[in-house]
Amino acid sequence: MQFPRHTLKKAWQLRAELASKKTTSLALTEDYLAKAKASKLNSYLTFMDAQAIASAKNFDAGKSSGMLAGIPLGLKDNLVTEGVKTTCGSKILANYVPPYSGTVVKKLEAAGSVFIGKCNLDEFAMGSSNENSAFGPVGLPQDPTRVPGGSSGGSAAAVAAGLAAWSLGSDTGGSVRQPASFCGVVGLKPTYGRVSRYGLVAFASSLDQIGPLTLDAQDCADLLEGISGYDPLDSTSLDRPVLHYGKAVEKIRTDATARHDFVKKLRVGVPAEFFAAGLDAQVQKAVESAIDALRKAGAEIVPLQLPTSKHALAVYYVVAVSEASANLARFDGVRFGDRVYPNGANSSLDEMYEATRGTLFGNEVKRRILLGNFTLSSGYYDAYYKKACQVRNLIAQDFAKCFAKVDVIIGPTTPTVSFERGSKTNDPLSMYLSDIYTVPVNLAGLPAVSMPYGTGEKGLPVGLQLIGAPFSELKLLESVAALETLFDGAF
Amino acid sequence: MSQLVSQEVTRKVAKLSRLKLSEAEIERYTAELGKILDFVAELNAVNTDGVEPLVHGFALDAHFREDVAVLLPEETTRKIVACAEQNLYDQYKVPQVLGGE
């Protein structure tokens, strides 16, 4: 199977066509909107026609310019958009129209980005297959009977199928990288604090980050540059300079000498734990071929150990559910969202709360709220939450030790390629295993990117994950750009 | 199967969570929570003596805004309150809490 990036136009190519007047933003926008509406993948929940057309016309009239201007983009439907329904894939917010837009959405608007619509997701970003959306699952573009991954399944599928030039997702335990891997696109989770979370509906606040989904490293770098930066409205946003990711990647992509020099100086860590039991043989083969290619190109390959990472999934399912149970307490039917009155006008306030939440939240969300309230409850807090946070510290220390020796850590993004719809829905634990290589990264607050590299079972895309030290997005994206040329044989 | 989660525990946690659950759901979640907690129990084998709990990402130079009350324009208040399914006089309307029988 061909990679989409070989057949679809990347955002940087569209930008060149716009600059040379080969096309107009309006023509592009109408084309993407028409394709998105005709698609049966269910990757969009709401289309933003009026706003998209207006932004496109603005660009064509010379009223906006820059890296993001005039180019069609998809937004995960947990990013709040003023005046446009934001459902989080949940019945409880089925009719919620936010009174404000988040920081990232405002940045994109100011940069002239064209919003095609709001992308489907697992309810409140909880899931690894997009089967937990209250508004139906999303199909994998390569084979719609399979899952696109989750929770940013709609955002990833939209890019892979050419229904948006690029998109934004959010990543709490792998929700950008895992669907990027399944759909064969590039997906980046930035360093915790790199991108403002203001206006991202919170799932697990110490883990959540917004990240780009794109067709290649160049687009990923350009979009990251557009959404990064300090935001006083997010108390966990970090005040570090936004680098020229796009320019750096362009150099690696276009200048063979710079590329060769870069790879020769690159120290690549390979943790034994990422190649353990449970890893599909074809996925392993594809990842090893990437490591071989880097070695042949002159990179130093360093075997590593991440001994505590095998406990990351257990830590994640305590930390994430604990935070989720607190974050989702706000959905009480009072201030936003729909209400359910079990006994009509005679319902008490508590009865209204319980019926609203019990009826309108889906299975996975209820399971995680229950688990979180259990692990935080009196008598269990130390045994679960505190213990998990201590092990989390050990995981972060493992990574810190590794980054004293290497620039990037490489491994698979997921143990398998995309699986069939319905094959894991009755077994939460087997579904959770899909995130085994992605969750350690969120626990340690690190940046990581998934890129397509080769194929596995049935010719489906394999995702290669590169993990970096805090704020090393530039090096990660340069590495992805170098690997793209290695894979294409153009190194 | 975990000894920790009985149907009684699930009911108690459901109450704390303000989640109305059917009998079938109580049964299902009791089994599932048990399985997940059994899985999580592997953490008990990790030696964490003297290890500080890490509750946030790698660095947190958290910054806070001044703790001052800001009077929002009436129009903003109205926009926010309008998100509620029921509101009255720019306030949230809920079932009666005090009084009654």
Word description of this protein:
The complex is a heterodimer of chains A (491) and B (101). By secondary structure, chain A is α/β, with parallel strands linked by helices. Chain A contains 18 helices and eleven strands. Chain A is globular and about 75 Å long. The mean pLDDT of chain A is 96. Chain B is mainly alpha-helical and 101 residues long. Chain B is built from three helices and two strands. In chain B, helix 1 (7-16) crosses helix 2. The longest helix of chain B is centred in the N-terminal third of the chain and has 18 residues, at 23-40. The radius of gyration of chain B is 23 Å and the shape is flat. The chains are: A alpha/beta (491), B mainly alpha (101).
Oligomer: heterodimer
Describe the main β-sheet of chain A briefly: 11 strands, mixed
Q: Structural class per helix/strand content of chain A?
A: alpha/beta
Number of helices, counting only DSSP H or I runs of 4 residues or more of chain A:
18
Mean pLDDT of chain A: 96
Largest interface: A-B, 70 and 53 residues
Q: Describe the strand arrangement of the main beta sheet of chain B, using strand numbers.
A: 1-2
The percentage of residues in β strands of chain B lies in under 5%
| Count of separate DSSP helical elements of chain B | 3
What is the CATH topology of the domain at 7-44 in chain B? Histone, subunit A
Poorly predicted segments of chain A: none
> What's the helix-strand series of chain A?
HHHEHEHEHEHEEHHHEHEHHHHEHHEEH
Fraction of residues in H or I helices of chain A? 40-55%
Structural class estimated from helices and strands of chain B: mainly alpha
Query: How far apart lie the N and C ends of chain A?
Result: 22 Å
Number of strands of chain B: 2
Rounded mean pLDDT of chain B is: 88
CATH class of the domain at 7-44 in chain B: Mainly Alpha
Instruction: Give the fraction of residues assigned to helices of chain B.
Output: 25-40%
Q: What general form of chain B does the structure show?
A: flat
